[in-house]
Structures are given as C-alpha cells and as structure tokens.
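User: My collaborator sent over this chain with a note saying "see what the structure looks like." That's all I know about it. Can you take a look?
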Amino acid sequence: EDRLLVEEALGRAFADFLVLRVADAAGWQEALATGDFGLGIIADTLPWAETATVVRGLKTLRPECPLIMLAAPEREEAALEALLSGIDDYVLKSPEEMQRLPRVILAARYRARRLAGEPFLTGADDFLARKEAEEKLRQSEILYRSIFETTGTATCIDDENTVLCLVNEEFAKLSGYSREELEGKKSWTDFILPEDLKRLKKYHRLRRTDPGAAPQSYSFRWQGRQGQVKDILATITLIPGTTKSVASLLDITARQQAEQALRESEVRYRLLVETMNDGVGMQDENGRVTFVNRRFCELLGYPKEEILRRHLRDFLDATNKGILREQMERRKSGERQAYELSLIRKDGTPITTSISPVPMFDAAGKFQGSFAVITDLTARREGEKAFRKSEETYRAIFEHTGTATAIAEEDTTISLANAEYL
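Assistant: Without extra context I'll predict from the sequence alone. Here is the result:
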C-alpha cells in the first residue's frame, strides 16, 4: 500500500524513476551491499526491524543519501522524533500530504548535494533549489499563519490606505464583524473614537515616512459594532519591504478600570489617614520609619522629612528603647497588643502615647515591619492627675470641716461620712 502511494505521487512529478521495495531484513542487507539507490523512503513502523535501527544503519553507511519517512497521521510525533535520529524529512500518509512528497524529495536531494560540496549548480540543481525554497516558503506560511491565528490577541494587517487586509478571529470578535465583512472592506479608522483618530492617523503616516518618529505601542479608545467603548493597547510595526503594518490589539479595559479604582481608593484612604486625630506610622523590619501622617509629625514636632528613614528609637530615652526592643520581638511573632511608649519631642519634652500595632508579613510569612496608630495620652494623663488632686483637696476639706458631715443616698443609706460624724 505504501509503495502504491509513493509511485502514484512520484509519477505525477518525475518521468523516470524506479522503486525498489525492501520487504525483509535480507532484502535490506542486499540493498545496502549494492548501494544502487539515491533516495530512501521508510515507513514509520517495520515488521522486520526497528525503524530507528534501520535509519542509523543507512546514515552510517550512506550519510549522503536522503531519507524520507512515511508516517500515519496519528504517528506524527514518532516522525518528529525520527528527525533526531537522522531522517531528512517526513510526509504523512494522507492524500493532501502525499502531494508534498515530490517537493520534499527534491529538497532533500538538493540539500544532500550541497552537503557533498558540489561546486556548481546544474539546471537540475537550480530546479531543486527552487523547489526547496517553495517548500520552505510553504512551511513558513503555515508557521506564521498558525502564530497569527493563535496569538491570543486581536491581530490585523493593514495597508497604507488603512484598509484591513488580513485579520484573525480575535480581531473579528473585538470588532463585532466577521472576517468576510472586514478583510478588504473595512478600515481600522472605522473603530477609533473621534478624539483619538487624528493622533492615530498621524502615527500611521509617520510609520511610513519617518518610522523612528512613530511610537510602537500606545493606547486609544475603540468602539465595536455593538457600540461598547473599550480601552486598547496597540503594538504596531511596519512589515519590512512593504507599506503594510501588522498590529496586535490588547483589550485593557478591565485593567484600566481596576487601576482607576485603585487610584481612587488610594486617594480616599490617604485623605482618611491624613485627617485622623491620631498619629499613623509604619516601620520596616529593621525599625526604620517608612510612613507617617500629619498628626504623627505634630506629636513629635518634626517635619515629615526629618522623621522618614530614621529609626524610631531615635525619639526615645533609654527606658523606652528597651520597651520598643521587646515590642519589636513580639511583632515578629505576630502579637499585636497595645502598649504605652513615651516619645521625646523635638523641643525635648516627653509625650506619653498609646501604640496600637499591627505586624506585617509577606506571602511567605517573612516579617516585613509593622503599622501602628499612635494616640496622645498626655491630655488624659494630665486630666487624671488634676482629678486626683481635686479629689484630694475636697477630701481634706470634707474631713476637716469641724462639724459632723455625711453624704446620704436616696434610700437614706450613708455612703460617706467624716470623722466628726462617726
């Protein structure tokens, strides 16, 4: 069956040829001994020997002899592996692929002659070279067509008049039109919003007159058939030797929306942090301050630039440095209990604060520093002190009035009495 396929394919391309069929190991050894052949065509499986063994044997004795493999479509992977063993090329056993066999043979023979070092090209060699070039071009077209279709982004080729010459399926989806409705009929300008169109036309013109002046990547707004506006990032380059350009279009609408939402969120949280009545600060794993808000600066009496990148211990006395050192170790273990710390202001006065910390860790669990809210306790402490003093004053008056004095509750229960009363 393979022989009939080969003879039918060769008969359409060559006027004079002879096919010698090798059906067993003895016949193979005889063919090798006589060496009366200029091309080998081997099946992907042999009933009488391992295919790889036969390939190595032929290439050892006749390295200049081209060797082509016929492979069943489902065994293309085995054919690809055979390329590493020494075959020159392969053809799948299907009507369409068998039409390639003459060109594959011609290309393989031409390469063999070139490797043999023949110094001159004959007419036949020139024909072979042309056939090899045609085969390479066909393979190249298949490769680049596959890349064009499977790139994952909307891709198109346009001419100097902005007409779409070729589009892939992703481009068709982005536009809302079929490929038949686009290719040779639509211009990419049909999809650009008016406020961006002038700029993109300028880039289109520059790309053909002054390529270095045209950016390769830029964004714009796109409107498809359904009217939905999208943000697009385009990467465009001129095809060498032509006036056509190839463009890859990436829909970045979701990313743009996410970035805008993030910017708005950052503004809101920064506004919140900057207007808090409590100080807010962050320090890295080494204890250096990386962020402070306005209130924190007010508490210490320093401008922000004189606090950032300094160590927090620079604002503490010896006793409080010890407290901070102990608390830093607790943060590294994940603890977040509040504690008191006395800071020293720029003018040298102490300020009692309550620190409410939150440790920070990366995805791997490595300690990255801490975030803290710093509350000024000075006013509270002074109020408590004033209250105690007032209480002591009135207690003294109560005890030394010289008369029996008592305080009775609503139910006549005496809750407080001085010594005279007792």
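A starting point for your reply to your collaborator: Confidence is low (pLDDT under 50) at residues 119-124.
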